Amino acid sequence: MKVRNILLLALPALSSAYPGMMGASKEEIDAMLIEKRFEEEKRDPQIIAPILGSLLGTIRGLLGSVASAVDLNNKRPEPGFEFRAPGPGDSRGPCPGLNLLANHGYLPRNGKVTFGQVVQATARGFNMGADLATVLATFAVLTDGDIVNESFYLGSPPGKVGGLNRHSTVETDVSVHREDYYNGCGDNHHLSSRLWKQNVAIVARSQSKLFDMENMAQQYAANARFSQINNPYLYYFPFPMIVSLGAFAFYPNFFSNGTYGAGGVPNYESVSSIVGAEYDDRTREFKYVPERFPPNWYRRAVPYTAANALADGYLRIYPKYPLVPGVAQLGGPNFSVQTVLCDAYQGIQSIIPLLLANDVENVAAKITWAQSKITGLLGGTVLGCDRDTLSPTVPFFPNATRTGGPLGTPSAQVSNIGDNVYGKVYFRNAPTRPQCNPSQN
Ligand code: HEM
């Protein structure tokens, strides 16, 4: 019997288990069915386990498929950039792309990276457009790093403050395969086994059997709905929201073997290796292992730019389950890629006070630094963002001091906020409440 039929047989029971299902869209129902399937597997592994095996079998059938027209110059890793698992003290965090670049030596292996290194390495390793890398790296230095050295840590820096693990800055809720900061009790950076399984199931029951845009949009819809229902401190700001939506689109666009849209394939082999998800037959869970390029892999041949990421994020991912952010134009005639980018540009002002609200001199220095990086790209003539609208009083972050807001993040277990620890399974079950005891995960 096909997996889909098995899932559909469960429908009547599900409507009582998930009362919100009545009136739900097809995507939402599918996501709930998948979640239910995995719950059943937990209760009765003998009966259901073979189904997970067959799901994996279906998508593993695509092992080894490589883009048809590839340029050998795009093969990665290049000689001299061999994989080496991070050692103790090497900083790794929520971004699989940057973790991988450090594991292959395209970025410093200790995980302390500079602005310039990031722009260069993301282009060389994945062909990320310089504008996209600049916007991301600027916000990372600004909110999570150190502007004197233009640097930041990929996970937690020594001393545990800042780094990409810092919540509500670049790191955000509704991630692809990371749990929300609050419900994960501070663990917003390890690959979650249950979120990866959910994604695998979505891919396996789709026609394409790929981590393509349609399937990633379904993963987004399931995650957004889960966070909306279960996370009382879900906070979705314009800039982190862009990162979050963009990240769903990054899967096909950066992790495909070859160029997505031009013969490249975002198959299980490529994506699972790059994000570090390893299936463990014994536990029937996915272990989080260090991110690495799969064998015989080719990066995309053309840069993927900020405008590409915004268009994909907002037009192809977000409509599956809109969560209301601080993007005022949403739903109106002025909503466009340009207005969203300009919102991010203006958002610099409102992020500054989160960092150094009590140090006026430093605030001024940070604003000047960030504007010097981004203005050339987004301000003035390029996209026509209005520089004069920048104002520290723009209320981008209502209720910022509320617990769970950027000035009042909920408490988290210290042991959950450090650097990535690999070789373990994280979040076997969906954290509907804060999971503060790692043994519960
Ligand atoms: C240019 C500098 C970059 C910065 C500062 C950055 C930062 C981040 C951060 C903070 C997150 C966590 C977001 C969240 O909580 O959902 C993240 C997630 C992600 N990043 Fe990056 N990133 C960068 C480049 C890249 C590159 C080059 C790639 C791919 C080649 C990439 C792929 C991803 C993906 C797929 C996720 C989602 C992870 C998941 O939830 O499964 N990033 N990034």
From TrEMBL:
<keyword id="KW-1133">Transmembrane helix</keyword>
<keyword id="KW-0349">Heme</keyword>
<keyword id="KW-0812">Transmembrane</keyword>
<keyword id="KW-0479">Metal-binding</keyword>
<feature type="signal peptide">
    <location>
        <begin position="1"/>
        <end position="17"/>
    </location>
</feature>
<dbReference type="GO" id="GO:0004601">
    <property type="term" value="F:peroxidase activity"/>
</dbReference>
<keyword id="KW-0575">Peroxidase</keyword>
<feature type="domain" description="Heme haloperoxidase family profile">
    <location>
        <begin position="79"/>
        <end position="312"/>
    </location>
</feature>
<keyword id="KW-0732">Signal</keyword>
<dbReference type="InterPro" id="IPR000028">
    <property type="entry name" value="Chloroperoxidase"/>
</dbReference>
<dbReference type="Pfam" id="PF01328">
    <property type="entry name" value="Peroxidase_2"/>
</dbReference>
<feature type="transmembrane region" description="Helical">
    <location>
        <begin position="233"/>
        <end position="251"/>
    </location>
</feature>
<dbReference type="GO" id="GO:0046872">
    <property type="term" value="F:metal ion binding"/>
</dbReference>
<keyword id="KW-0408">Iron</keyword>
<dbReference type="InterPro" id="IPR036851">
    <property type="entry name" value="Chloroperoxidase-like_sf"/>
</dbReference>
<protein>
    <recommendedName>
        <fullName>Heme haloperoxidase family profile domain-containing protein</fullName>
    </recommendedName>
</protein>
<keyword id="KW-0560">Oxidoreductase</keyword>
<comment type="similarity">
    <text>Belongs to the chloroperoxidase family.</text>
</comment>
<keyword id="KW-0472">Membrane</keyword>
